Amino acid sequence: AVAAEGVEDLAAAAVWGLVRSAQSENPDRFVLVDVDGTAQSWAALSAAVGAGESQMAVRVGEVVVPRLVRADGRGVLSLAEGVGSGWRLDVAAAGTLESLALVPFEEGERRALAAGEVRIAVRAAGLNFRDVLIALGMYPGEA
Fold it and tell me: Cβ contacts of residue 40 below 8 Å, gap of 6+?
């Protein structure tokens, strides 16, 4: 499928997963092609398959190939200037990740460490499926 399209054949997704596994074991032996069924696409199919790509979609005769490119991250989860040093990732409206934002997290003044305590600097953090379900308001248990 192409980004603006929905999935028409959900069962085919399992086949694509199987073929991707076969591609990893036997490079250059399998090609995945999603064709929209138009006459222009069928006419372009042989040239598309011969292009050497392992996966593509053909839409009205135009070949679309997935590519990873560096994203311009300006304005995406940006930090407000001059607001504290603590931040947390928050979702303002449950049920969608569209409102995902970094918001200031003020703990007040840093307190002195008690015996047996340590202070760490977090450089990276993981996000698991449970966190996503909680953010979407779909987690069945207590969050």
Answer: 60, 61
DSSP string, 26-86: STTS--EEEE---HHHHHHHHHHHTT--SEEEEETTEEE---------TTSSPPPTTS-S-
- The model carries a pTM of 0.49
Kindly state the DSSP code that residue 114 receives in the 8-state scheme.
P
Using CA atoms, how far apart are residues 99 and 64, in angstroms rounded to an integer?
30
Domain spans of the chain? 10-64, 70-143
Structure confidence by residue, pLDDT tens digits, 77-106: 566 665 566 777 788 887 777 888 777 776
Helix and strand numbers, DSSP H then E, in the chain: 3, 5
